[in-house]
Design a protein that fits this description.
With 297 residues, the chain is an alpha/beta fold. It is built from nine helices and 13 strands. The strands form two sheets. Strands 5-4-1-8-9-10-11-12-13 form a nine-stranded mixed β-sheet, with helices on both faces. It is globular.
């Protein structure tokens, strides 16, 4: 499929701290600490470019403090940055605490990311675009949620398919399933992980949650960590995709890698199962290194 992928979402500065033993309260814990470019939306864009999508663009709002750095890193990854510089808020920052099992806990300062406003959107942003992807982080604040809904509505007016990644189980829990689903209404593709799917449906089993969500969205792909992914359509599971076995170092961005690679494959003409297989390969690659970006990003 010709045309561009436009991602609308968050661009974040990640501070990744990897430690092996238990955290020691009130004193020092040895850790490997790196400052890296991140953000679910930006990561998805970079993995889509890494997966072969020739024209990837991202719209996001960042603070003037790190805007130039993020623009340079996005361009280096093959992504065209369309970043709005915010004079009133710093760039979003996430501190990712990664333990010896590669599991991560996030401390999030949303900064400028959730200040993306309707005035930052223009229908012209869809010129030449064949797919719009919305990072679910935008749905967790009123202003950015309004912007995401506006982008979704504009895309549908133009016949451009839309995908949504819920992005954060913690924020879905805080917002509530019903408001999130209402905001995502009309999306053609939903890409939650198993925890997010459970929260959105009240169903603990990933298979049941995926099937239920596919009664609301035409195509649903639920990632299940090291187990792989489930593909669901029309109220039923149509495929189970197994992920490659790797030694995990940091699970930060694994879901973003899956989504970016899935979209790249999908836009190149692959069916949902083949796209999910590409996503699983990318996710497996992502967990073998620190941070959420592909090796070239």
């Amino acid at each position: 499929m010709s045309g561009a992928l436009l991602v609308v979402g968050d661009v974040v500065t990640d501070v990744v701290a990897r430690f092996r033993g238990p955290l020691a309260p009130a004193t020092d814990t040895a850790a490997e600490i790196r400052t890296l470019p991140g953000g679910a939306g930006a990561n998805v864009a970079c993995w889509a470019a890494h997966g072969g999508c020739a024209d990837v663009r991202i719209l996001g709002r960042v603070g003037a403090d790190r805007a130039a750095w993020h623009e340079e890193r996005l361009r280096r990854a093959g992504v065209r940055p369309l970043l709005v510089r915010d004079a009133g808020a710093p760039t979003a920052t996430v501190v990712a605490l990664v333990d010896g099992n590669a599991e991560r806990t996030f401390l999030t300062d949303s900064g400028a990311a959730l200040r993306l406003a309707p005035g930052d959107w223009s229908p012209k942003l869809l010129d030449g675009v064949t797919h719009l992807h919305l990072s679910g982080y935008l749905f967790f604040a009123g202003t950015s949620r309004e912007t995401a809904r506006l982008a979704l509505a504009t895309a549908h007016e133009r016949g451009v398919p839309v995908s949504v990644d819920p992005a954060s189980a913690g924020f879905v829990r805080e917002l509530g399933a019903a408001p999130f689903l209402a905001a995502a209404e009309g999306a053609d593709l939903l890409l939650p992980n198993a925890d997010e799917a459970a929260l959105l449906t009240g169903l603990a089993a990933p298979e049941e949650a995926a099937a239920a969500l596919s009664g609301r969205f035409p195509l649903v792909v639920v990632t299940t960590g090291a187990a792989g992914a489930l593909v669901a359509e029309s109220g039923r599971i149509v495929a189970r995709v197994v992920a490659p076995v790797v030694r995990a170092v940091d699970s930060t961005g694994a879901g973003d890698a899956f989504t970016g690679a899935f979209l790249a494959a999908h836009l190149s003409g692959a069916g949902p199962v083949a796209a999910a297989e590409a996503g699983c390969r990318a996710g497996a690659t992502a967990v073998t290194a620190l941070g959420g970006r592909p090796p070239t990003g």
